[in-house]
Amino acid sequence: MDFYYGMAQLIGVHTLLGLSAYVVLLTGQVSMAQAGFFAIGAYLGGMLTVLAGLHIVPAMLLAAVASALVATVVGFPALRVKGLMLVVATLAFGEAVRIFWFNFDYQIAKGNIQVGPLGGEGFKQIRYFPENGWSTADVAIFIWAWVIAAMVALWWMDRSRVGSVLRAVGEDELAAQSVGINLTAVKVSAMGIGGFIAGLGGAIYAHYTTHIEHLNFGVVLATFAIAYPILGGLSSVIGVLLAVIFIQGFLVEVLRFMGDWRNLLFGALIVLAMNVRPDGLFDARATRALKRLLGGRDA
Amino acid sequence: MKRLLTIAAAVGVAMSVGTTADAADRTVKIAGFGAMSGVVRSFGINTDAVMRAAAKAINDAGGVKLADGSMAPMEVSFDDDRCNAEEGISVVRRIASSDAVVGVGPTCSNVAEPLFGILQAKAGDEGDSGLQFPIFTDTAIKGGLAKISEWAFRNVPNESQMYQTLFEWLASEHPDAKSVYGGVEEDFAHSRFTWYKVMKTRSADAGYEVKGEAKWLLNDTNFTTQVRAMKRAGADVIAISAHPFTTCGVLKEMARQRVEYKVLVGLTSSSSLETLNGCAKQAEGIIIPTSFAPVNPDAVAAADAAAALGGSADLHSAAAWEIMMILKDVIETAGIQATADSVAADRRAIRDGLATLKTTKGLLGEITRTDEGEAVKPYVYVHAADGTWAVLHDPNT
């Protein structure tokens, strides 16, 4: 059972990462910076529990706020570029964050060992969960409480005027601007919300793995972050969850026995999935069907 | 009443048949894991082959003696963690949810560190909810990792000691060599640690002037700039702390730029077949301390058994052979039951057994075990000569 709880934890963390990219994508911005925000959340979250001795919840929230602030700051210059240029710019930011942690040393003595980030050697002993007696099930429930909170918040936002504004900007910036929508506020807000969710995910990730290093937050993670909402579809937050389950649960875990062939099949299956479901695994039709199933009004 | 007795008898017979079958079917399950895909997959492939070869040797000799005196075969499985921390954790959680009594792995230090972190730090600490599952590491070699958890044990060489004696020996053998220049695979935990914390400091301790280091990344394929800096430094000793893939790239670039040196030193993980397959000509003469070489009948037999199953015995995979033999002894001494109900107790017994070991038998001689779960292994210096690894010096003689 421990394994399934562990998988639930992993899927939960990646869902937060995917949701962070989802909210930014709604405004039409393809951000490869989510791994950078995730890294900021991971390192700060870890430092706050290990070095400052904070409880996990305030540590996560502070780390998420810091990530959100950085994301907001990044959001302003990102306004000046679009499309592929934005991809390159945000990718460069993500790499800059990674390199920052690669060169960042801050350790203090805790008992007979030194703890804290140590550049390329990483940041170990982020053992808040086991040291406080949290079982694997407790951690899974804790993570999913955050995931569900984030999903419900985004679901609600999607159904509110805010969601319509985000989607309007994503669909056609000019049209949105012509009806008085403030593009700067919308895009920067989306980036900030995405940064907050990525920071939450990162802080949990650091405590889930107990050891983080710069290599965990590279281009591959940034690609995963953006792949989740694209593969899952932008119709609903459910799509992100389905995509994470498909990638982490099926492609990574179930196909593990295939060795190197798994990597090959990995790409092929994603291409296949996107051809079969071009609007994502959970597209608008699926969203309408779910709404009907839940007895709600049709979109 | 008669019907009830009949049913009870039938259930009794069924249970006894089941019990008999269970006793006959008992196996000691050892779960290997490591990189079977990606850049460092050869490590996992070799470890898998060596573990299966060792299990075959043990089973051919009758298997493992259990607590009740019966003999059970060893069964080995192997999972791919892709040298990825998240996947390593998932793999170990899955193994720990099975009836495997011990895990052997991982390949990469960046997987070992988080993995040991999710284990219970102090065995029996009820306030620590970490995983209670013994892990015996054959390959991840970055210094001092086993102290993270009392459930973690390693059978990897002590690089600090190996390079200290190597540089001291080089200083006496090559008194004309006065300076060292390093090359380091900067983003790989082991390579980085070994250069900055081991090679650099140990060479300075041996009296060498350290002129600096060139840095590259594990996935780099172009080393022009780094080798140019290396050539400009004009050091007598070039010490490369990198794995076979980039070691070969750098050596080829060094040959292209005609870098001159008196002594070439490599990372212990590069004393493998991969280096010779990749750049035997350019690696000619490179000196590496290693805890395995087929220099005695036991080591030759282990290497042959691994080769028969498609693997290559090197310092890392040979450690897996030693681990399997150590586990056999520990299991027999600890007296495990290998039943579905005894998994937790068996794991604890194996952990406790491993923790009490002071010495074990190794392929090159006696291995000393430290209180922190680490090994101090015998080693030799090998050098690449005519496309093979030949023993250059045995510091124990």
Question: Keywords, please?
Answer:
heterodimer, A: 299 residues, mainly alpha, two-stranded antiparallel ribbon, 13 helices, 2 strands, B: 397 residues, alpha/beta, 4-stranded parallel sheet, 12 helices, 44% helix
Secondary structure blueprint with pairings:
The complex is a heterodimer of chains A (299) and B (397).
Chain A: H1 2-25, H2 34-50, H3 56-78, H4 83-102, E1 108-110, E2 113-115, H5 128-131, H6 136-159, H7 161-171, H8 173-178, H9 183-209, H10 219-232, H11 237-253, H12 260-276, H13 284-293
Antiparallel strand pairs in A: 1-2
Chain B: H1 2-25, E1 28-34, H2 41-60, E2 64-65, E3 71-72, E4 74-80, H3 85-96, E5 102-104, H4 109-118, E6 135-137, E7 152-154, H5 159-173, E8 179-185, H6 189-205, E9 209-216, H7 224-233, E10 237-241, H8 244-256, E11 263-266, H9 273-283, E12 287-290, H10 297-308, H11 317-334, H12 343-356, E13 359-362, E14 365-369, E15 375-376, E16 380-385, E17 388-393
Helix pairs in contact in B: 2-10, 2-11, 3-4, 5-6, 8-9, 11-12
Report the largest inter-chain contact: A-B, 42 and 34 residues
Per DSSP E runs of 2 or more residues, the count of β-strands of chain A stands at 2
| End-to-end Cα distance of chain B | 80 Å
Identify the overall geometry of chain B: elongated
Question: Biggest sheet of chain B, strands in spatial order?
Answer: 4-1-5-6-7
| Percent helix range of chain A | over 70%
H-E order of chain A = HHHHEEHHHHHHHHH
Instruction: Return the structural class of chain B.
Output: alpha/beta
The structural class of chain A is mainly alpha
Largest beta sheet of chain A, briefly? Answer: 2 strands, antiparallel
